[in-house]
Design goal:
It contains three helices and no strands. By secondary structure, the chain is mainly alpha-helical. The longest helix has 19 residues.
């Protein structure tokens, strides 16, 4: 992210996803619903494609 190879917006997305993972794994009584998860699909797909391109 710092080098500019991957856009900073993906850093924010990755941070959000990591936070959600921690909440899902360790949070008491934390459930994800469709309204939270579904909007992330397009962004995550774009992040994955960017990473693949750079590899």
């Amino acid at each position: 992210m710092k080098t500019g190879i991957i856009d900073k917006k993906f850093g924010k997305l990755f941070s959000k996803l990591f936070d959600y993972r921690l909440k899902g794994d360790y949070g008491d009584l934390y459930d994800f619903d469709k309204d939270i998860v579904e909007p992330l699909f397009e962004e995550v797909e774009s992040l994955i494609n960017t990473i693949k391109k750079e590899l």
